[in-house]
């Protein structure tokens, strides 16, 4: 399923949903990536200062990828597709 993230908060929410969908705890995802549970928590919460390598390693561990596309201007009804 294609998901769009335009903010770090939205990206964190996508990571959290996918982690839970896969039945992983923050600690077990952290182990897969080589990070502490607290780092996964900060990433999911959208806290600033997260390194791009941390994001990329985490989404790879979840079997996800980032696709860069032009930002589109959608109707107000399209906002539901972001979340």
Report on this model:
- The longest helix has 14 residues.
- Helix 2 crosses helix 3 and helix 2 crosses helix 4.
- By secondary structure, the protein is mostly helical.
- It contains five helices and no strands.
- It has a single domain, classed as Orthogonal Bundle (434 Repressor (Amino-terminal Domain)).
Determine the CATH topology: 434 Repressor (Amino-terminal Domain)
Per DSSP, what share of the residues sits in E-state strands of 2 or more residues? under 5%
Stretches where pLDDT is under 50 for at least 5 consecutive residues are none
Major sheet size, sense and barrel closure: none
How many β strands by DSSP? 0
Summarize the topology.
Layout: H1 8-21, H2 26-33, H3 37-45, H4 52-61, H5 79-82
Write a concise synopsis of the structure shown.
The protein has helices at about 10-20, 25-35, 35-45, 50-60, 80.
List its salient traits.
83 residues, mainly alpha, 434 Repressor (Amino-terminal Domain), 5 helices, 54% helix, 0% strand, globular
């Amino acid at each position: 399923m294609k998901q769009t993230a335009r903010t770090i908060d939205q990206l964190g929410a996508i990571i959290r949903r996918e982690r839970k969908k896969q039945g992983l705890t923050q600690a077990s995802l952290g182990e897969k990536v080589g990070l502490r549970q607290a780092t996964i928590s900060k990433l999911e919460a959208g806290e600033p200062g997260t390194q791009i390598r941390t994001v990329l390693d985490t989404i790879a561990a979840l079997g996800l990828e980032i696709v860069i596309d032009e930002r589109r201007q959608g109707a107000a009804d399209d906002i539901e597709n972001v979340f």
